[in-house]
Specification:
This is 1,4-dihydroxy-2-naphthoyl-CoA synthase. With 282 residues, this protein is of the alpha/beta class. It has 11 helices and 12 strands. The radius of gyration is 21 Å and the shape is globular. The model has no long low-confidence stretch (mean pLDDT 96). Bound molecules: ligand LW2Y6JES.
Length: 282
């Protein structure tokens, strides 16, 4: 199925109930599609999002991912409070049928952080609760002028002590992060931009056009350089896990060198490796 939005011919693929996965011009667009609940997520939504982000990661044609919500009323209103059980969120899967709730948005947050391609959050309307945390986890955020941001946890009996707390604090500063969580106020797009939580604010009718323009600009850049910069920025705040990702990238680059390939070839050819050919760099 093809949909033309802001001059882009989006090609839909995948079999999903709660999300939409589309690609065009080297961009993947992943949309939470539960507008009747302001795009609140349930476990099923999160499993589908993980699948779609994996598809975008594995597609070598895709260089940038746009993450958004259906309609112009909300990007995402966090966890679906209507299916919240006593220990997490319920669904139709076998785990839920045993009466065990899930808290699986954290897996998605980690996936977005580790994904070696820029993820741009495109926010119209609400980015609230776990929805705001998701946009904080994205590399960039483009907001429409009708966007509203905030945390609700202490109001609805929840909190996010992971990225939702300390990555938010790293993004907006400690005092502001405390204000956001302790008071549960809602902030306009312009206020969110001033506190460093979004990159730019545009009129709602120009939201997708602007987001695609940012994606196209990134697609002109070196994919490996973008990957390394994302890994480097996240490594500092992700500690050992971030360093592990960065170390993996270093190994990948080394594998691509003649020097590493000499080691592999020598083993396969049952000879001594000729590493003398390679410079001992200063
Ligand atoms: C966002 C609002 C302020 C918008 O208000 P308004 O414009 O007046 O619209 P409404 O009439 O309220 O909403 C329209 C419609 O949508 C339904 N809805 C909205 N949000 C949700 C939701 N989150 N869940 C279920 N349904 C929702 C609403 O009920 C209406 O439908 P009706 O049929 O008319 O009833 C306002 O809607 C609002 O405040 N929403 C709730 C925001 C919220 O509190 N979100 C949850 C925060 S907690 C969270 O996100 C989970 C955290 C989490 O994920 C997590 C954290 C740490 C570890 C693990 C996890 C994890 O994995 O879960």
């Amino acid at each position: 199925m093809t949909a033309v939005v802001s001059g882009v011919e989006w090609q839909r693929s995948g079999e999903y109930a709660d999300i939409i996965y589309e690609t065009a011009e080297g961009i993947a667009k992943i949309t939470i599609n539960r507008p009747e609940r302001h795009n609140a997520f349930r476990p099923q939504t999160l499993f589908e999002l993980q699948d779609a982000f994996n598809a975008a990661r594995d597609d070598s044609e895709v260089g940038v991912i746009i993450f958004t919500g259906a309609g112009d009323q909300a990007f995402c209103s966090g966890g679906d409070q209507k299916i919240r059980g006593d220990d997490g969120y319920m669904g139709d899967d076998t785990v839920a049928r045993q009466g065990i709730g899930r808290l699986n948005v954290l897996d998605l947050q980690v996936q977005i952080r580790r994904l070696p391609k820029p993820v741009v959050c495109m926010v119209a309307g609400w980015a609230i609760g776990g929805g705001n945390v998701l946009q904080v986890c994205c590399d960039l955020t483009i907001a429409a002028d009708n966007a509203r941001f905030g945390q609700t946890g202490p109001k609805v009996g929840s909190f996010d002590g992971g990225y939702g707390s300390w990555l938010l604090a790293q993004t907006v500063g400690l005092k502001k992060a405390r204000e956001i969580w302790y008071l549960c106020r809602q902030y306009t797009a312009e206020e969110a931009r001033e506190m460093g939580m979004v990159n730019t604010v545009v009129p709602l009718e120009r939201l997708e056009e602007e987001t695609v323009a940012w994606a196209r600009e990134m697609l002109e850049k070196s994919p490996l350089a973008l990957r390394m910069v994302k890994g480097a920025i996240n490594a500092v705040s992700d500690g050992a896990a971030g360093m592990q990702q960065f170390a993996g990238d270093a190994t990948m680059l080394y594998y691509m060198s003649d020097e590493a390939q000499e080691g592999r070839d020598a083993f396969k050819e049952k000879r001594r490796p000729e590493f003398d050919r390679f410079p001992r760099r200063p």
